[in-house]
Amino acid sequence: MSAIEADSRVKNVRNYVDGGWVDPKTERFQSWNAVTGEPLASAPVSGTAAVDAAVQAARLAFDRGDWRWKKGSERAAALLTFADALAARGREISELIAYEMGKPIRVNMAREIHGAVDKLRFFAGAARLLEGQITAVTAPEVWDMTLPEPLGVAALIIPWNDPVDLAVRKLGAALAAGCTTVVKSSEITPASTAALIEVAHDCGVFPRGVINLVHGPGDPTGEALVAHPGVNKISFTGSTATGIRIMERAAKRLAKVSLECGGKFPALIMPDADLERCLDAVTYGAFMYAGQSCTACTRLIVHRSVYDRVVEGVVARTKKLPSGNPLDPAVLVGPMASRKQYDKAVSYIRLGLAERGRAVAGGDPGDRKDLFLPPTVFVELPATSRLAQEEVFGPVLLIRGFDSEDEALAMANSTPYGLGGSIWSQDISRALRLARRVDVADLWINTHYIRHAETSFGGRHLSGIGRELGMAGVEEYMSRKRICIDTRSSFHLKDWFETPEPAA
Ligand code: NAD
Fold it and tell me: What is the pTM of this model?
């Protein structure tokens, strides 16, 4: 049996528990082809019992299995096999993602599949580099040290916009650390994430129960996973509202939480920016896969001296963006992933118009039956308006002018988010001065979207807590244990207690 029943027109997607594919006899939900609107996959609404089965399998694998005790080199070898197998099936999975969430295949291969393969290879290396520490300032016979240990069972809750790559950021790190896992797919993209887990299964290198997968919406599936006492760590990527809810619930039993949430990306364009490069980058950065990326560029903050050229240049480029069928290798902007996401973006466009924004590209799309939403560029929208403050997660870009650096920084830092941002200036001293004062955790200078598995990623404020990628991302799945050994034969604890000024 496999993750997906291939012979039916609508793919029948299953849970993966204790090394096997299971179909809980529950209600089912569907995912949809983002282009045609036809049903694409059917998956179980995993309730308390189905979630419990997955957590119990992960629990048993952690408590009684040997994954956590394997040498780093053995865990690394398994992750490398997983990476090669994913690379071999990259094309097929990339097409599935294009159907299920509408992300263009061109973006999928580069950012989703190749990105995920590279991250798995990084995590394989990380598994060999886990290190403890020993203090050098004790008496030489006293060894006082800390050792990293895996936290236990990790629940990995992912959104729909990168259903493979975002799963790998969590899964690779958790497996490298020695945790066992329960992945929860998004209700928009169950088949895409199931395909990733099927690759892991088919490799045959992960012991039973180390990787488990459940499908279903936030309620009941996510809620049951977060509340489960067998889960030690919750790693979530999704909206800020859901992140807050998860943190509140996890607090009841002090489960460790990391949250990767929303953003409102500012790009500061200074008068000395290389405008040709900058305008290409910010336009692609805003609208690639219809702006459904947490670090999509959403606000251009532009020096008045270049403001008109920037507006003109962005509008011209927006009109020429290769949009259409995500299966077409030339296309960069596909449909919105779901009706819900389409409606949300349209309601924000209407709100922006009501809030006195002027749409210089796109605007109210009227009544459309499909999910293709033409990119919208707004100017003159007040900085305090809701559209300027809240995350849309769609193809909507705002442009505002500034006169002084202080004004630019005040605008950049005016939202409650702190995820990504960029600065465009050829004066590196200026760029670095601003970089220290833009209140985000992920900043690009004269570029956008370049990311490496070696450097950590995350947000501050309402954009989240914790980090993914890099060794910091693996550390999220570990707990440090201190071990202190006294090898002196001359030392007696009784004397030490009785000495007025003890010296250990
Ligand atoms: P979402 O919050 O609706 O859902 C995310 C996941 O959480 C889904 O699997 C969902 O089923 C689950 N969920 C929902 N309610 C839950 C609950 N009460 N308990 C447990 N799980 C629950 O977000 P979405 O619409 O899928 O994704 C879009 C959001 O993700 C955007 O806000 C975007 O900025 C954010 N995002 C952030 C990053 C990042 O790295 N910071 C990356 C990608 C996306």
Answer: 0.97
